[in-house]
Amino acid sequence: MSVRLCKATTILSSTFLLTFLLVSFLPSPGNSETREDHSPQLALAANAEDDAVETLDPVVVTATRTPKVLTQVPGAVSSINQTQIQRANPATGLDETLRVVPGVFAERRFGPDDVRISIRGTGQRANFGVRGIRVLIDGIPLTEPDGQTRLEPIDLDAISRVEVLRGPNSALYGNASAGVLNYVIEEGSADNVYAEQRFTFGAYNFFKSRFKTAGALLKDNLSYMGSYSYVDAGGYRRNSTVKNHRFFGKLKYRIDSDSDVSFILTYSQPDIDIPGSLTKTQAETNPRQIQQTLHAVPPATFPRNTPYSAFRTARRDKRWRPSLTYRNQLTQNQAISLTGFFGTRRLDHPLCCFTGSYLTHKRIEWGSFIQYINTVPIFGLPNRLILGYDRQDQNTITRNYDNVLGTKGMLRVYNQERVYQDGFYLQDEFQIFERLEIIGGVRYSRVRFKIHDNIPTVGGNTSSRRNFSEWTPSGGLRLSLAKWANLYVTVSQSFETPTGTEFRNPNNPTGSGLNPGVDPQKSTNYELGVKGEMGNQVFYEFAVYRQRFKDELIPFNAPGPCFFVQCFRNAGKSDHDGFEFGLAYRPIPGLQIQGAYTYTDYRFKKYTVNGIDVSGRRLPGIPEHRLVIDATYEHTSGIYGGFEWLYQTDYFLNDTNQVSPTPGANDQKNPSYTVTNLKAGYHTTVLESWELELFSRLDNIFDANYFTARLNPGTSPAFSPFPGRNVFGGVSVRYNFN
Fold first, then answer.
1. Alpha-carbon distance 75 to 180, whole Å?
2. Dihedrals φ, ψ of 246, to 5°?
3. Pairing of strands 179-185, 133-137
């Protein structure tokens, strides 16, 4: 482990010890009324009638394949509840929910539906969508078989909590190096029958309307929840308009006391204009402008000075997916669940400005999953065995045309792409003593890619296939010395193939086909952590890890088919060293303080690129330090307010860690930044059955000009500015029928 990491771990450990000694002598908090806990981990509430603080049920997560108390999971896990998702938030971008999770970087590029998420450095390479992270909706993968995820379908208004597993979980889910995000859908109940309307307005012509209802019928045997939302936003930059229709619905029928069946329907229809990237100088001087750099285009097609806006770059992506899950508690110690889903997607995506830049997709996908759980004790000691098999399949017709000023020109690519993934897994959790648990598991995964070229006369016949398979074991133990000290150690391996777009072939003039020179990245993760609750006031988590990668996937630009669209290659070896510290603290009634600190030291261990040995240099795109503080106070009257503060250090954009002396060049560092947000609101009950909430927030109050950036950009513009100072406000009205 690096000297820097050892020193930083020592400092943080000392800080933790001092914090523990401090909070140990703090008096217990008094009492106040709260609507719902703000903390993703602390399940605390105050009882106004008896002046005594009581502890609610422990926080339970399900992304571990079975329900498990958060503090008993031998790994880095966070849970974000519905109040934190929605309170004084427009609830449009997934980055809003992930700010206070250590080890997670979530940044918008071109709007609320274009969020890049990275967990422990994996995923930062993505120019669109999410890579290396398994994204689930109620345990059902939104992630496609090749490992890519588009986030537009997720409706935060319908989510009851978000579960975040950091670190490799390939033993359970396969084809992922970074972790798991599980968005758990809200369920109706007979005790909570309501209808709710919410409106949000904001700067840059932002408007959002949402209607949601939930409850139960048939003597509480049939629960329901439905949520429809519509977003219409003008955008901070020119040509960044966003419109999105979303619907989430869930029906759950209880067949008997031991079995139930759930039906989930998701639908989304985003229509997003893309403003493009800027050079650093452009981003600093006029961040709201559209992309200005002019690309070379085929001779005699368009003049080189044709403006970016003429190509009408946008993404229109319509998809829907129904799913069905059956669960049965067969006996006291045996349970089984079966899931199936089907979905369609239609993409219409004009891009700027090179040959073959009007992309269309027509896709059908389906999947099925089976899981068996056995909790029969072994030698009289608690044991839980999990067995499962899952399969996903997708079939896509891809066409790529010349972009003739926003319309389809000559057809350049016409392929049929088939991606298939399946795997079986086994995990056992054996509790030797009440406080000691040993966990071990293994998964066998297969991922297959197949492309059939329907016009082999353009660029040659690019029909090809690639098949991959891998065993990924994991193991660990948890030692619970006390409620405030749950220690764990884990060793796990990961396996992650390139996605379909990352197979872009640098050896073909159109980039078509499956690049034979790129392979899956693999890693082994070693992790040590501790977490727990101190009284009813403090929850903390600390993790230190080293993840050793082989053949890590790295983007690059080069003359030819990789000039405008990035291709990918494998780095020889790299090490991801880091630690994470999260804290939720309630010092007085009504006041909740959360903090998340992330330290990274990610470096190439053995890698030569373009004849340059970059061994020992930092991986691009990853800040060394990131600190987030979120403080919220809620008075017993229903008035609440608080602030969010975020600091992030700079990072290199290229593998060589070089900075050009030319001020406007793309190989500058992405600068560090500090951002402060304010939030406030009022919640009350009127005439017993009506709930009213008014809320507002002021983001980036000091009007910082800061950006995210693309890695190894070559000569293309790389920077995407975040919005300047902006304000949101809204109102929510709920009628409770019971």
1. 12
2. -135, 145
3. parallel
Instruction: Supply the pLDDT for residue 355.
Output: 62
Q: Which residues contact 727 (CB under 8 A, 6 or more apart)?
A: 202, 203, 696, 697, 698, 699
DSSP E strands, 234-333: 242-256, 259-273, 314-331
**With contact defined as beta carbons under 8 Å apart, do 546 and 526 qualify?**
yes
Residues with pLDDT less than 70, the chain? 1-58, 169-171, 293-301, 304, 354-356, 458-459, 564, 663-667, 715
Contact indicator for 130, 148 with CB cutoff of 8 Å? yes
How far is it, in rounded angstroms, from Cα 354 to Cα 688?
61
Q: What single string gives the DSSP state of each residue in 160-176?
A: EEEEEEES--TTTS-SB
In the block, which residue shows the tokens 């619970």? Answer: 480
- Both structure tokens of 483: 């409620």
At 39 the pLDDT is 42
- Give the global pTM: 0.89
Query: Beta-strand (E) ranges in 587-638?
Result: 591-606, 608-609, 612-613, 625-634
The 10s digit of each residue's pLDDT in 204-227 is 999 999 999 999 999 889 999 999
Cis peptide before 353 (omega within 30 of 0): yes
Distance, CA of 84 to CA of 120 (rounded, Å): 23
Q: Which of 37, 227, 255, 232 is nearest to 137 (CA)?
A: 227
- CA proximity to 309, closest of 429, 445, 405: 405
Question: How high is the pLDDT of residue 492?
Answer: 92
In 457-590, beta strands by DSSP E: 464-482, 485-496, 521-534, 538-550, 553-556, 567-570, 573-585
Q: Distance between terminal CA atoms of the chain? A: 58
Give the residue from 209, 173, 726 showing the smallest Cα distance to 443: 173
**How far is residue 687's CA from residue 412's CA, in Å, rounded to a whole number?**
64
Q: What pLDDT is stored for residue 104 in this prediction?
A: 92
Total residues belonging to the chain? 738
Nearest to residue 202, comparing CAs of 653, 679, 692, 560?
Answer: 679
Q: 203 is written with which tokens?
A: 């700067």
The single residue listed with the structure tokens 């990274």 is 600
Which sign, positive or negative, has the C-alpha torsion 404, 408, 411, 417?
A: positive
Q: Are 441 and 466 in contact (CB under 8 A)?
A: no
Name the token pair of 91. Answer: 């609830």
Which one, of 277, 1, 123, 104, lies nearest residue 648 by Cα? Answer: 104
Tokens of 29: 């908090």
Residue 638 tokens read as 């229903």
Number of other residues whose CB lies within 10 A of the CB of residue 572: 16
Question: What is the distance between the alpha carbons of residues 687 and 705, in angstroms, rounded to a whole number?
Answer: 46
Angle at 710 between CA 705 and CA 711, to 5 degrees: 130
Contacts of 321 (CB under 8 A, 6+ apart): 153, 265, 266, 267, 341, 342, 343, 344, 365
Q: What is the DSSP letter of 536?
A: T
- pLDDT digits 0-9 by tens, 138-154: 989 999 888 888 888 89
Structure tokens at 619: 């991986």
State the Rg of the chain over Cα. Answer: 25
And the tokens for 231? 């977003």
**Tokens encoding 274:** 């893309």
Residue 192 DSSP label: B
Would you put residue 638 in left (φ > 0), alpha (ψ -120 to 50) or beta? left
d(CA 582, CA 586): 14
Distance CA(45)–CA(637), nearest Å, equals 16
Q: Which amino acid is at 725?
A: R
Q: Is 26 exposed, middle or buried (0-12, 13-18, 19+ CB in 10 A)?
A: middle
